[in-house]
Design goal:
By secondary structure, this protein is α+β, with helices and mostly antiparallel strands. The strands form five sheets. Strands 1, 2, 3, 4, 5, 6, 7, 8, 9, 10 and 11 form an eleven-stranded mixed beta sheet that branches. Strands 18-29-20-25-26-27 form a six-stranded antiparallel beta sheet, with no helix packed on it. A six-stranded antiparallel beta sheet has the order 19-28-21-22-23-24, with no helix packed on it. Helix content is 22%, strand content 21%.
Length: 782
């Protein structure tokens, strides 16, 4: 059968490879089959095929990747968050209950897209770092052709929408290079966040179309709706132009990564539904999972994660706050399900659903603990004192525009039921074990069935290749291809029942020096004490214990790692440790990086004086102020006015701190806005107004931002032509770390997103002539 041929090809040739040249990105001029004479009558005219053509009846393919969603969150896997679209896909398809990821976003995406392990694809850490070792430089090799490049070579139209998160951050600016942006790695079109970004504001995201910045949406639609609209439009346009050409859509909306933003209508669907708390939630979900058969009978809830509070020990105020956090998260996820349903409905409307493969990975890792013990309403983690002071605040506003909520770690644990721990825990199932749904009406015989075979995100690639009857070229874009490391599970998809032999029998895991190894049902964990200090916090007076001893589990009888057998079977521990050693050397895992040590070096801005040129638009963005954490700086603008002018000179609209320097009737004014000064949930606004207006004609307006690392106070000084015209302090919190290509970007000549000051309405374009702007970064003052 095809499956066996593919496996033989992997073993013998080292790759799924074709000896014939590819004709998409790698497209040499084909040999002319006719005959050329001096005249047309003397010639034999021929028309060789220049572009690849898909096989007749080739299925469309849709990959959907969700973000930070635990195994026990959604209804197909026993969770209490309603996802009717996911339920439909599961009922008409298959649920894989033993599917695994890498434990964090960028590595999972690199592995998924390339069909190779994340270290083989040079993404052993997050793509915001570049470490000096092959497995960690964050540059996915072109020799690891991704699924879009392969399907494009097989005659598919290819689209990526949402969160790409697979481009090295240093290549993600306006000057590129663009060779590792989606449209240079096999995708005909891309619409989504900056391809290096992990998340963004859902109401005012910084979006890109192919390699160009996309304007803010005049209709005020949320990111998930815009993503869905673009995905449907790509399909509609392509099927109109070429109805016989299959399409591949990679839809990764970023839901449900922080910030948990959704409309009040979606959040309010869950009013009161989580008042029972996370402990009871876990009990109900486990009962559902066992009844549905996605978790084996006899599975018990794991022990509480270290440092996690019990719901019964909380005050009524705390319960109210935490219940609302979960309502917002659930609404956020249900909204994504609805939007994904629109894509499914459209494919049905055009008569293509029966011939479409849909692979839904419900998470790129497990649920997260990054919200900490108390959760967040903005990027600053709450403290116990804050949580106790907010009894009177308007919790109904959580999730709406200008709020940036994050549930606390206990909800992360509950939605990971029945597994322990969280995202970034590569050693525990709670970090790597996700639900996956495979939908292919034309081929699946066991609709609604459950598959228990071990699978990994690198396996989706070869499975898609096999089921589309595609060929992986030996050369893509001139690059000789490396072996594919995933193993197809098409036999599980096509089987009439679950009686299928497991194909993927061994797999390593590693992140930040903590690692594990799986083989034939056995799994050994090697926690790293140093890493534990990073991922556990000291909350109040409670010191969380660390863990550095190996653990051993037999997962075929112990689904959620509850019975540690390491002391009973030390030889098995040693055997699996030796297997890990082999794979670690083979797949670029070594050396082990126990933290992202060189992030500051990577983010270092080598230019201390930056000139920003203003084009015909009259405004600009500068997204490259990375590595400025704690630095003081100056912003200057050369302007020319003929009257008392209004408009923004500089602004940043951050998800915690925002500021704007603008002219109001010619007077320079600085406004600092800090969202959600407790306990009112109203933003704190401070203004510094210059003592006089700018003169008519040419002048330079300057702002000094002097940050004190010891006190976190910030002094603002305003100048007109080097004359001090205003100064003041904006207190703690006005830090520079939010100036990043991965988030809010410095705007010159306008404001982006919600209005920062009540003096104007965004975008408040500068009405005079903005000649040039300057950014001067001062040395770090210790």
């Amino acid at each position: 059968m095809i499956y066996e041929k593919i496996i033989k090809s992997i073993l013998s040739a080292g790759a799924l490879a074709s000896t014939a040249p590819a004709m998409a990105q790698y497209s040499p001029t084909p040999e002319f089959p006719g005959k050329i004479g001096k005249t047309v009558p003397e010639s034999q005219i021929a028309y060789p095929q220049h572009n690849p053509k898909a096989k007749v009846g080739a299925p469309n393919v849709v990959w959907i990747l969700l973000d930070d969603v635990g195994f026990g969150a959604t209804t197909p896997f026993g969770g209490l968050i309603e996802t009717p679209t996911f339920d439909y896909l599961a009922q008409q398809g298959l649920r894989f209950n033993n599917f695994h990821t890498t434990s964090i976003s960028a590595p999972t995406r690199a592995a998924l897209l390339t069909g190779r392990n994340h270290h083989s694809s040079h993404t052993g850490l997050f793509n915001i770092t570049t470490e000096g070792a092959p497995g960690y430089d964050s540059y996915i090799p072109c020799e690891n052709g991704n699924i879009a490049e392969v399907l494009q070579e097989n005659g598919y139209a290819t689209f990526a929408v949402g969160k790409y998160n697979a481009t090295n951050v240093t290549d993600a600016g306006a000057a590129g290079p663009f060779n590792r942006w989606p449209t240079r790695r096999g995708f005909d079109h891309y619409f989504g966040y900056n391809p290096a970004a992990a998340c963004d504001d859902q109401y005012h995201p910084f979006l890109y179309r192919d390699t160009q910045r996309e304007p803010d949406d005049s209709l005020g639609q949320m990111a998930i709706t815009r993503f869905t609209n673009e995905a449907i439009q790509y399909i509609a346009d392509e099927q109109t132009a070429a109805p016989d050409k299959p399409f591949f859509l990679y839809f990764a909306p970023g839901t449900a990564h922080y910030p948990h933003q959704t409309t009040a209508e979606w959040a309010n669907k869950y009013k009161g539904k989580f008042d029972m708390g996370w402990d009871e939630y876990a009990k109900q979900v486990l009962a559902n999972q066992i009844k549905m058969g996605v978790v084996p009978k006899g599975t018990q809830l794991p022990i509480h994660n270290n440092g996690m509070e019990r719901w019964a020990d909380l005050s009524d105020t705390e319960r109210k706050i935490y219940a609302r956090q979960m309502e917002v998260y659930a609404g956020f996820l249900s909204q994504a399900d609805y939007e994904i349903g629109r894509i499914v409905d459209f494919i049905r409307e055009i008569g293509q659903l029966d011939n479409t493969i849909i692979v839904l990975s419900i998470g790129d890792n497990g649920a997260t603990s990054e919200g900490g013990k108390f959760g967040k309403i903005n990027p600053d983690r709450w403290t116990k004192d804050v949580a106790l002071k907010i009894e009177g605040m308007n919790l109904d506003r959580l999730g709406v525009e200008t709020t940036y909520p994050f549930y606390n770690e206990a909800w992360g644990a509950a939605t990971n039921t029945p597994f322990r721990y969280y995202k970034m825990f590569a050693d525990y199932e709670g970090g790597t074990h996700n639900g996956m749904i495979f939908f292919y009406p034309k081929a699946i015989k066991d609709k609604g069935g459950i598959r228990t075979q071990y699978t990994h995100c690198i396996d989706i690639y070869p499975t898609t290749v096999e089921l589309t009857n595609s060929t992986v070229p030996a050369v893509i874009s001139g690059y000789k291809q490396n072996p594919i490391e995933g193993i197809s599970f098409a036999n599980s998809v096509l089987s009439p029942d679950n009686n299928v032999k497991e194909s993927h029998t061994s797999q390593y895991y590693e992140l930040l020096g903590t690692y594990a190894y799986y083989k034939d049902g056995w799994k050994v964990q090697f926690p790293n004490d140093k890493v534990a200090k990073e991922r556990y916090r000291k909350d109040g007076d409670q010191q969380v214990p660390f863990d550095s001893v190996p653990h051993l589990y037999y997962l075929k009888e112990d689904f959620n790692e509850s019975n540690d057998l390491a002391k009973k079977y030390p030889k098995k521990v040693a055997e699996l440790k030796a297997e890990f050693e082999k794979d670690a050397w083979k797949y670029n895992v070594y050396p082990l990086f126990t933290n992202q040590t060189n992030a500051a070096r990577v983010f270092k801005n080598d230019r201390s004086h930056i000139e920003v040129f203003i084009g015909p638009k009259g405004y600009a963005e500068y997204p490259y102020l990375i590595g400025m954490d704690g630095h003081s700086f100056s912003l200057s603008a050369d302007i020319e006015v003929t009257e008392a002018t209004n408009g923004v000179l500089f602004s940043i609209n951050g998800n915690s701190n925002s500021f704007s320097l603008y002219l109001k009737d010619g007077v320079p004014t600085y406004t600092f806005k800090r969202y959600f000064d407790m306990p009112s949930l109203a933003p704190m606004i401070q203004k510094i107004i210059a003592s006089k207006a700018v003169p008519l004609g040419k002048s330079r307006v300057k702002m000094d931002f002097d940050f004190n690392l010891q006190t976190y106070d910030t002094k603002i000084t305003l100048y007109i032509n080097d004359e001090v015209v205003g100064e003041g302090s904006v207190g703690r919190g006005a830090v520079t770390s939010f100036m990043s290509i991965l988030g809010p970007q410095l705007q010159i000549g306008r404001s982006y997103g919600p209005s920062i000051s009540d003096d104007y309405k965004s975008p408040n374009l500068f009405q005079g002539k903005l000649k040039r702007a300057y950014i001067d970064i001062k040395p770090l003052a210790m």
